[in-house]
Amino acid sequence: MSAGPRVPTWGAKANVALIFASIAAVLAVAALVTAFLIDPPALGWVGFAIASAVVVGLGAAATLVLPRMRVSAARPAVAGDADRRLLVVADASCSEDALCDEIQARLEGRVAVHLVVPVRVSRLHFLANDEAKERRDAEQTMLTVVGLLQRRGVSATGSVGSDKPLESMTDALGTFPGTHVLLATPSAEESYWLERDLLAKARALTKLPITQATVASGQPAGPTGRQPAPAAAERSVSAERPRPTHEKERTS
Predict the structure, then answer these.
(1) Taking the C-alpha atoms of 28, 31, 36 and 42 in order, what is their torsion angle to the nearest 10 degrees?
(2) What Rg, from alpha-carbon coordinates, does the chain have?
């Protein structure tokens, strides 16, 4: 099974670490200068602590507000023939079977498919660069769908993207000469927080035709992603079941 090269994702995270390291260094120098040259009273140190908190807050806000997309996207790959190829950017939570059916229904004479599955992470993991489990989930989805497509006779390859769907798309177009892009996402209620307005943003980054399809989620139902425990359900039913009449007579 073919897979594209893994795209490094540490650049933006290194910038976040650099911002906070710079803030910490500046505050440490300011504290030393204040202590040895100014020697402020206790109230002055309270003001310094408040100012430091404001600076740290501004630094944290900058990491969230500033665009995480690279300024210069990869140069799109150009094919040496006129064959049509389909690039699919799919949410890792999509049902593998439903995603495979959606891709196959949209081939329309295209000779090859490349599937890229971005890493779907929470906001906290996005900042902390704690993506090991989410990356494994994305890889599993990619391998499963590519395998299903290949078994159906489709020439398919795949790769795991970064934690930013738009960056994953432009990176993939740098190595795969796609002629059409398909964005496969779950319903709005289950969509990834970085997938908001994804279609409009994607169309602003490439001149290729782009369509978006809603694919059923393969995640378990329920707000926590878990089904109710059968044992608990059975206990609930048995607790509400009335006792037989002969049992009531023996207790009276």
Answers:
(1) -150
(2) 26
46-73, pLDDT tens digit by residue?
777 787 777 766 666 665 545 444 445 5
Handedness of CA 221, 185, 69, 129 (dihedral sign): positive
Angstrom distance (rounded) from CA 91 to CA 136? 13
Report the alpha-carbon distance of residue 211 to residue 208 in Å, rounded: 10
Using DSSP bridges, classify how beta strands 180-185 and 85-90 pair: parallel, antiparallel or unpaired.
parallel
Considering the domain delimited by 85-214, tell me its CATH architecture. 3-Layer(aba) Sandwich (3.40)
User: Is 142:160 a contact under the CB 8 Å cutoff?
Assistant: yes
What is residue 121's three-state secondary structure? coil
What is each CA distance from 87 to 25, 72, 151, 177, 210, in whole angstroms? 45, 20, 19, 8, 9
In whole angstroms, give the CA distance from residue 53 to residue 23: 11
Domain boundaries, the chain: 10-65, 85-214
Tokens at 178, concatenated: 């796609």
- Beta-sheet strands, E only, within 153-241: 156-160, 180-185, 210-214
Neighbour tally for 113: CB within 10 Å: 25
What are the phi and psi torsion angles at 115 (to 5°)?
A: -105, 125
Whole-number Å distance between alpha carbons of 16 and 18: 5
Using one digit for the tens of pLDDT, what is the confidence trace for 94-144?
999 999 999 999 998 899 999 999 998 765 544 545 567 888 989 999 999
Length of the chain as a residue count: 252
Helix axes 96-105, 132-151, angle to 10 degrees: 50
